[in-house]
Each structure stands twice: as structure tokens, then as C-alpha cells.
Amino acid sequence: MSDEDVGMLGKLSNLFSRYPHDTGVRPEAFVGMMRTTRADAATGVVAVQSVPDKFYFLLFGAIRAHLNSHMRGRAELLMVRAVSGATGTGVLAEVKRSAVLAWLLGNQWTRAYGTLVNGVAYRCATWAHPLSDVADWFRSRAIWKQIQNQGTDISLRIDGIEVADLLIDSYLRFKPSPEFDVSDPFVRRLVWQALRDVRQAHGYFGRVKPRIYLTSYTTYLEHGIPARVALHHGVSVWSFGSLNRFGKKLSLIDAYHTPDFSGYRQEFEGLDEQDERLMLARQQLENRLSGGIDAATSYMRQSAYGKSDGELPTNLDGAVVIFLHDFYDSPHVYPDLVFIDFWQWICCTIEVLQASGVNFFLKPHPNQIALSNEALGRLREKYPGLQWLLTGVSNVQLARAGMACGVTVYGTVAHELAYLGVPSIGCARHPHHTFDLCRTARTQEEYADMLKTYGVSPLPKEEMQRQALIFYYMHNLHGALPERELNLAYVTFWKICHSDNAADEDVVQGFRRLVGCPAFGRFVESMIPDDAKCG
Predict the structure, then answer these.
(1) Are 391 and 363 in contact, with CB atoms under 8 Å apart?
(2) pLDDT for position 308
């Protein structure tokens, strides 16, 4: 028997395992956490997104266990695996997305929670509603044809829920493709899934009305639709998809898992001892820029500034540098995105700069997936003669070489450049959108005008640097010590769970450190809606 046959048999046998083959994914992980429910406890159902990832399994299990002493009621798992079961569009991919596989694999994670959960809310991949699914399939064709006539500004509301951005992100990730092609039949497949997901989510959240819904991210169909429908029905939705903050309560006006940065500037202006706070931010940011790992980058294996990778081109002085994003990552993690995807953005950027005779360079994203190499190849074919920078080149090197401006969609690179005295241009409601250190376009026309006037600096260098330090302080250092310790434990645990070299005991210790933080219990108790508490 060949090694390939042995591997295939191993994968098949895993389908019938009692629990997933992941460290800590067992009922024993929560021994001692499930406390007796208090007599004056709140009441209501807790809905939990079932994520096939040990990090979220352990995190959500611990939250459910801590909630139990303050909230009486059932906990039900929402099984979101469907399109996310595979990448690609062939027969094998659809088999991996099938209800049978979703049921087999999903049940392993359900069993692993033990008595923490009481059942399944609903499954995104299911054969339980054949007539409705057939009706949705025919309905999907009409909707698919409809959005093909919308141009590049696509909107799709299904039963009151906007899903166009989720559909686009799912296409980029699971097709996979660097650009959204609305005429691709796979888009109809995604529309069909969206119809089924919205229908089931409305049915569950409208009927059961859980008090709390725990979700990881809010992008893609699998995450975004349940979160938006739950909010629509007045459910308290909490997301744990960002490492910048431990947990975020979502709302109808802010249903993104990324933090809300809009209050940073105003809140800082109300703080005392501003000079001392800015000095602390300066020390930390200087440490990062010199190759150290600061609080904001503690999840990284190594610093992006730890070493330079090759010599710089000689004609960087006065040039524009475009900081590419991962083409297959979800672009709609922030609102007000000017472009439909990163491909449309980069093509527009290149064409405007070339037509204006601007000297510019492209810098690939340092954490892009392997598929992005193919996308970069397509870019080179479409625009011969592009000037490229090595991924390992740091922003410090670029600033010292005299770069004139940085271009990004919403990268946090903007505040690093501002600290180094370099202005930037963005085109989404990015983390710095309330600051003046980065010029932010709200339309494609405005974006093109900004590119043509790239040499315009929004502020004197000293004020750019001050605003960069304000952002850094508010983003990474502000807050009470217990909450910052909780977030550090949260990030550290995430890093352990996603490390290939972490030992089993590392996972257990990281988990115990997280749930052992005094702020963890206080945070969980604060999640309970006021109207669920007993008088």
C-alpha cells in the first residue's frame, strides 16, 4: 500500500472518530469550570458558533461554562460549515461541502463539548429542507442575473439582510480568485447558500431569540449572515475575531469584528498626562521599528523590522510605494470600502499612476498565502515593467530612502509611515480615518485625484508624528491593567494554538492562563443583557 493510500485511509477513519484530532478538544478541557447556577441567575438560550478550530472551541467553551453560573438556560451550537468545507468548484469540492461530511465532522465537535451544550441550533449544510432548497435554487438564478446588471457597485439584500460584501469575500476565498467575477456560475452557488443561510437564521433567531450569540468573525457568508440576522432580531452578539481587543459587542450600525477606532482621537484629548503617554508610545513604537516585538505584534513569530532583505532600488527617492494586501483575504473587514476587491483597487492604482507618469513601486504583503504568488504573476503579465520591492524591506528603510507617499486600502502601515514622516493614502474607513495623518478617499474619483497629488502632505511632520503616537497609544497601550493583561493572554493563547511547534502542554497552559485572568470572568458576566437579569 502506498503512502498516499495510507494517508487517504487515515483521513477516512478520522471522519468516524469520536472527537477531532486536536489538542484539548475534549470535554475534559472544561472540568471544574461549570459552576452551579445561582438562584438569581438570568435566563435565556446561548447560541454558539461551532468553529472547527481548537482556539475557538476552547474559548467559547470557557465562556459558556462561566456564563452558566450567571445565566440559566440551554446552549446550542450553530453549525456553519457549508461552502467553507472546501476551496474550488469541482465535484470533489462539492462533496467536501456536502451535508453528510458536515454532519460527520460537526458531530465530533458537538460531542467534544460534552454537557456544556444541549443541542444544535441549525446546520448551514443540511438536507432537512429539500423543498425550500429547491425553491431557493431557482430563486438564486434570478438574483444572480440581477446583480450582473449592477456594475461594480453591488448590493444584495435578502429578506432584509445585506449580504453582497459577504458573498464577494466568500467568492475570493473559496473559489479561490484574486478578483470577483459576477458572471461566474460559482457566484450563483454562493447566492443559493446565502438564501438558505438567511432563511434558516431568520427561522432560528426569530423563533428562539437567544439572549447571546457568540461568533468568531463577521466576514464570509458563514460568519456574517448569522451575526447580522441575530442583530436584526435583537440578539446580543459578541465577536472574538480581532486580536486587538478581547471581544466586541456588535450592533446594527457596527456589525464588523474589527475594533471601532472612531473614538481614539477624541478620547485621547480628554486624558491627563498626555506627554507621558506619548513618551511611552514613542518608546514602544521605536522598539518595534528597531526590530523588537511590542504588545501590538506579540502574536508574530518574528519582527517585520528584524532584518533587511536585500538592497533597495536607487530611484526610491520621491517615489510612491503601494503596500499590497492579500488578494484572497476578506477585503470587507472595514466599512466604506471604495473598491469591490483588492484586484480592482490595485489595477486602478497602477493605471492612474502610470497615466500620470508617477514613479512607483509595489511591495507584496508579508503574510500573504501561497496562492498570492499566482495573483502577482497575473499582475506582472497585465502590467509589464512594474517595479517591485522585496517583502523583507522595512518601512524604516523606505522612509530613509526618501519615499514620498504610501498607498494602502486600510493598512495600519499608515501610522508607522506617519511616525517616519511619510504621508499615506487610504480608501476605506480604516483604523486611522479620524486622524489627519492619512488622506482617506470616499469615492474612486477622489482616490484618483489623491494619487495624482501624492506629494501633498496633510500635516507638518511633527504633527503627523504626534498623531501617529496618539493612535499607537490608544490602539495598543490604553486601558486598565487587568484588561490589557487579559488581551495579552488572549493573543498569546491564539499564537500557541496556531503554532506548528507548540506542545500539548503549551496549549493547556495558555488556555488556563487566559481563563484564569480575573478580567475574564468579569468580562463574561458583563456580556449578559440587562433585560435578561433578574430583579
Answers:
(1) yes
(2) 57
Nearest to 188 by CA among 280, 89, 96, 121: 89
pLDDT, tens digit, for every residue of 374-417? 899 999 999 999 999 998 899 999 999 999 999 999 988 999 99
* pLDDT attached to residue 9: 45
CA angle 23, 490, 497 (to 5 degrees): 25
Give CA–CA dist 104/2, Å, rounded. Answer: 26
Which amino acid is present at 430? H
Q: Beta strand 46-50 with 75-79: parallel, antiparallel or unpaired?
A: parallel
Strands ordered across the beta sheet of 424-426: 360-363, 320-323, 405-407, 424-426, 438-440
Dump pLDDT digits (tens) for 461-507: 999 999 999 999 999 999 999 999 999 999 999 999 999 888 999 99
Cα separation of 472 and 412, whole Å? 10
- Strand 236-239 relative to strand 248-249: parallel, antiparallel, unpaired? antiparallel
Contact of 79 with 50, CB cutoff 8 Å: yes
Q: Are 527 and 59 in contact (CB under 8 A)?
A: no
Residues 6+ apart with CB under 8 A from 419: 285, 289, 464, 465, 468, 469, 472
pTM of the entire structure?
0.93
Q: Is the pLDDT of residue 201 over 80?
A: yes
SS3 per residue for 254-305: ECCCCCCCCCHHHHHHCCCCHHHHHHHHHHHHHHHHCCCCCHHHCCCCCCCC
On whether the CB atoms of residues 246 and 483 are closer than 8 A, the answer is yes
d(CA 133, CA 80): 16
- What percent of the residues of the chain are helix, what percent strand, and what percent coil, each to the nearest 5? 50, 10, 40
Residue 55 near residue 497, CB atoms below 8 Å: yes
List, for residues 356-378, the tens digit of each pLDDT value.
Answer: 999 999 999 876 667 788 899 99
Q: Give the CA dihedral 226, 228, 234, 239, nearest 10 degrees.
A: 80
Interval 339-352: pLDDT, tens: 999 999 999 999 99
Q: What is the distance in angstroms between the CA of the first residue and the CA of the last residue of the chain? A: 67
CB 136 within 8 A of CB 94: no
Enumerate residues 6+ apart whose C-beta is below 8 A from 532.
42, 43, 44, 71, 211
Exposure string of 193-229, with b = 16+ CB inside 10 Å and e = fewer, is: bbbbbbbbbbebbeebebbbbbbbbbbbbbbbbbbbb
Q: What is the dihedral of CA 108, 175, 444, 165, to 10 degrees?
A: -40
Cell reading at 453:
497629488
Instruction: Look at residues 133, 120, 126, 199 and name the one whose alpha carbon lies nearest to residue 163.
Output: 199
What pLDDT was estimated at residue 310? 61
